[in-house]
């Protein structure tokens, strides 16, 4: 810990080549507001049109259509948490950590909907059908594990040793693993 000129104590010294900024900290608030303001309504329109067309025009609603409503609810939750954190003035790291916890919960229904669509489109091929079964079984296991990891990192970050633990954790590894699994399971 280092003391400042006014006698108060910083919780941690700034990293080499950087300077602490407690007056006007870095934020992505305007970007989050802009992206969510544009894409959330577009997504809701797309899901509404999909459900309407499949229900009333084509009369062929499948499980993949019903499960696309869950990711829409997840996106609404994600946006709500983002906006509340921005309104409360949460730090960038608090915003990102909160959203990292919501991500595994929100992405699983997206993947489930995709696999159900794959099953409906390509279920006649025995090999592909087994790959879809594997994907449907793998997703809840993987994202539950990722949720446990994110929650454990959050619990560690609110403990007394938060500074040492936070500096030792490499969230980029978790992000890279989730990204790689997302890419592989999208094909």
Q: Count of helical segments?
A: 7
* Largest sheet entry: 2 strands, antiparallel
Mean pLDDT score: 77
Instruction: Based on Cα principal axes, name the global outline.
Output: globular
Write the layout of secondary structure elements.
Elements: E1 2-3, E2 9-10, H1 29-57, H2 63-67, H3 69-88, H4 92-122, H5 126-157, H6 162-168, H7 171-186
Short description:
It contains seven helices and two strands, in the order E-E-H-H-H-H-H-H-H. It has 187 residues and is an all-alpha fold.
Report on the architecture of this protein.
By secondary structure, this protein is mainly α. The protein is built from 7 helices and 2 strands, in the order ββααααααα. It has helices at 29-57, 63-67, 69-88, 92-122, 126-157, 162-168, 171-186; strands at 2-3, 9-10. Strands 1-2 form a two-stranded antiparallel sheet. Residues 1-10 and 160-168 have low confidence and may be disordered.
Which descriptors apply to this entry?
mainly alpha, globular, 75% helix, two-stranded antiparallel sheet, 187 residues, 2 strands
């Amino acid at each position: 810990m280092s003391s400042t000129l006014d006698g108060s104590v910083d919780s941690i010294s700034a990293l080499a080549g950087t300077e602490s900024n407690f007056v006007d900290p870095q934020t992505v608030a305007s970007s989050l507001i802009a992206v969510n303001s544009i894409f959330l309504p577009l997504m809701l329109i797309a899901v509404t049109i999909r459900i309407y067309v499949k229900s009333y025009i084509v009369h062929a609603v499948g499980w993949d259509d019903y499960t696309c409503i869950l990711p829409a609810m997840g996106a609404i939750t994600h946006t709500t948490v983002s906006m509340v954190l921005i309104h409360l003035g949460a730090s960038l790291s608090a915003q990102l950590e909160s959203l990292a916890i919501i991500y595994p919960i929100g992405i699983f229904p997206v993947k489930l909907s995709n696999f159900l669509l794959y099953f409906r489109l390509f279920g006649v091929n025995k090999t592909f059908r087994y790959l879809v079964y594997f994907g449907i079984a793998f997703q809840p296991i993987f994202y539950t594990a990722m949720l446990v990891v994110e929650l454990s990192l959050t619990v560690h970050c609110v403990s007394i040793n938060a500074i040492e633990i936070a500096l030792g954790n490499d969230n980029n590894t978790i992000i890279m693993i989730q990204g790689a699994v997302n890419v592989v399971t999208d094909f």
